[in-house]
Design a protein that fits this description.
It is a single chain. Strand 8 and strand 9 form a beta hairpin. The chain is an all-beta fold. The protein is 0% helix and 39% strand. The strands form 2 sheets. The protein has a 6-stranded antiparallel β-sheet with strand order 1-10-3-4-5-6, with no helix packed on it. A 5-stranded antiparallel β-sheet has the order 9-8-7-2-11, with no helix packed on it.
C-alpha cells in the first residue's frame, strides 16, 4: 500500500507488439485510495517501450505514452507522448472508478475510457515497438482487474 506522495515507476514484464502476435490488448485499472494525496490523487496510466530504463518520473520518459488523471479538485492532468505533455485539465477520476485501457497495435493508439465521464486516445510515437503496460502512482493507489 502506498502511504506517501511520490513518483514510482511500475511496468508489466510482458510486452506487446504486432511482431509478438498481438493486434489489440485490453486491461482494466481500478483507481484506488488517495490516502497519500487527498488533494491531487495523480496517477499515470499508459505504455512504455523501454521499461528497463524507465525513470522514477517515468511519465516524462521519451519511451512513454499515456495519460495522467487526477481528482476533480485538480486540473494537472493530460496526455503524454514521447516525453511531451499536453494539458487537458478534465481527466478526472474518483475512488473506485474503473479505467478501461486498450492498446491497439493496428491503429497505433493507446486509449482509456472512464465510462460516463470521458474517453481519450493517444497516438503512439513508435507504433511498431514492443509496448509494456505502465503506471506511475504519484498520489493514488491502483489495482489491475
Amino acid at each position: 500500500t502506498k502511504t506517501r506522495v511520490g513518483h514510482c515507476s511500475v511496468s508489466c514484464k510482458e510486452g506487446f507488439s504486432r511482431s509478438t502476435g498481438h493486434s489489440r490488448v485490453a486491461w482494466r485499472v481500478r483507481y484506488g485510495s488517495t490516502a497519500c494525496s487527498t488533494e491531487q490523487g495523480w496517477l499515470f496510466v499508459g505504455v512504455h517501450r523501454d521499461p528497463s530504463n524507465a525513470t522514477e518520473v517515468s511519465d516524462i520518459d521519451p519511451g512513454c505514452c499515456g495519460l495522467s488523471v487526477t481528482l476533480a479538485i485538480d486540473t494537472d492532468n493530460g496526455l503524454r507522448v514521447g516525453g511531451k505533455f499536453a494539458k487537458r485539465g478534465d481527466l478526472h477520476v474518483a475512488t473506485g472508478d474503473v479505467l478501461e485501457c486498450t492498446l491497439d497495435l493496428v491503429a497505433g493508439t493507446f486509449a482509456v475510457v472512464n465510462k460516463g465521464s470521458w474517453s481519450v486516445a493517444v497516438k503512439l510515437d513508435q507504433p511498431g515497438a514492443v509496448w509494456h503496460p505502465h503506471f506511475n502512482p504519484h498520489g493514488a493507489e491502483f489495482s489491475l482487474e
